[in-house]
Design goal:
heterodimer, A: mainly alpha, 11 helices, 3% strand, flat
Chain lengths: 260, 155
């Protein structure tokens, strides 16, 4: 696949990698809530320092984080430009109808910070956690909701099947693209190329559906019968390290939410 | 006869297709408007109810790999779940085609505006145009094809 530019698992042996996926999900969610509530420079600096130390602890080069955040730039630019030019406040610079206010600059920096930090946290999670671990964590966390009718096991199994087949379909769609290009189809941008994508999606979809039915047959013939009583090869276990990380992060989040 | 296992594998396959297409056509854009051709699959609940969880999981994984972060992962996938469900409910009417366009345009822009203060109407317009084009140019031909092809068993 196209390198590491799409937020995927990078195996290492760091502190963050060895955390239980459930505690990582907890850390990321609670930090996200804290970041959305941040409204002072002290809290900004505190969370940036904390997130940067987590990045360093993950043992993944900073370059990798930067390289895979291209998707962020477009929305970041639009957002910051909008804040700077349209948020009212005390005007500090004016040129014709364009004006920049002090509040605009403040909001621009704050929103850029929020977007970048929340993006960084998602990167941290996907870089240090294998997709199947995440799936298992999700199943365990959703387990209590099974009583109210949320199909936790089924959702996790759908996610597992999806993760298993993504690389296969990725390769297949590249093959079909080449095959259709050799027949004269054009996928080089513009409205027409969007219409031409039908020529890729139809064969891709037909083949995929045949695979789904074959897979169902294979599972049925191996007596798969849902989540009831099913055991796992590697079960998730929380250790002291998880409790430590959760405690430190919770304290930090409480400080941010209450004192600034 | 369709088994529940078959429904589950189909849902998984639809999710995988969604993510794979997002990865392949990551940078498909037309001027300032970004397209996500995989959104054409949001019409699948018209024919297959099992596509509802499939699209939900697909959007979840795709946003995990390349969205604008956690807000997108949680809210983006929930909005797609709602849109897919409504598409299935309204499968016999033209509303089925509208729900993925309208819900994404108005609600995705809403949470982007709420959390990041992005210009609301600009996002509504941009997402609305790109979703409509993908649905009309890709989704409708795909559904028409699957309807005609008898070898794919429907609900």
């Amino acid at each position: 696949m196209n390198g590491i530019t799409f937020g995927q698992y990078i195996p290492r042996s760091s502190f963050i990698h060895h955390l239980d996926p459930r505690s990582k999900l907890y850390l990321v969610v609670i930090l996200m809530v804290a970041i959305l509530m941040v409204d002072s420079w002290a809290a900004v600096i505190l969370t940036v320092v904390y997130a940067c130390s987590m990045v360093l602890l993950s043992g993944i080069p900073v370059r990798v984080y930067l390289e895979s955040s291209k998707a962020l730039w477009v929305i970041l630019t639009i957002t910051v430009a909008f804040q700077i030019f349209f948020v009212p406040g005390q005007i500090i610079w004016r040129w014709g109808i364009i004006s920049i206010s002090d509040m605009g600059i403040r909001m621009g920096i704050l929103m850029a910070y929020r977007l970048a930090m929340i993006y960084l946290l998602a990167q941290l999670l996907t870089f240090t956690t294998a997709p199947l671990q995440l799936t298992e964590a999700l199943e365990r966390l959703l387990k209590p909701l099974e009583r109210v009718g949320v199909p936790a096991h089924e959702l996790a199994m759908i996610m597992t099947i999806a993760l298993r087949f993504i690389p296969i379909f990725f390769e297949e769609s590249s093959k079909i693209t080449k095959a259709q290009t050799s027949r004269g189809a054009n996928f080089q941008g513009g409205i027409n190329s969007l219409r031409n994508l039908v020529a890729i999606m139809v064969p891709l979809f037909t083949r995929a559906f045949n695979r789904a039915d074959e897979l169902a047959l294979a599972m049925e013939s191996r007596c798969y019968q849902g989540g009831e009583g099913r055991t796992r090869m590697n079960s998730l276990i929380m250790t002291e390290r998880d409790y430590l990380a959760m405690a430190v992060t919770t304290v930090l989040a409480i400080i941010i939410m209450t004192s600034f | 006869m369709q088994s529940s296992i078959q429904k589950m594998t189909r849902a998984g396959i639809i999710a995988a297709l969604y993510v794979a297409l997002c990865l392949v056509f990551n940078a498909t854009s037309f001027g300032v408007i970004q397209f996500r051709p995989a959104e054409a699959f949001t019409l699948l609940p018209i024919l297959f109810p099992e596509a509802i969880p499939g699209i939900f999981i697909g959007v979840l994984i795709a946003n995990l790999f390349g969205g604008v972060g956690l807000v997108d992962i949680i809210f983006g996938s929930l909005i797609s779940l709602l849109a897919a469900y409504l598409t299935w409910i309204w499968r016999h009417s033209f509303l089925a085609y509208l729900s993925p366009i309208v819900l994404n345009a108005f609600l995705v822009s809403l949470y982007l505006h709420a959390f990041f203060n992005t210009p609301y109407w600009y996002m509504v317009l941009s997402i609305g145009i790109s979703q409509s084009l993908v649905i009309v140019l890709l989704g409708v031909p795909l559904i028409t094809y699957i309807r005609k092809k008898a070898s794919i068993p429907k609900e």
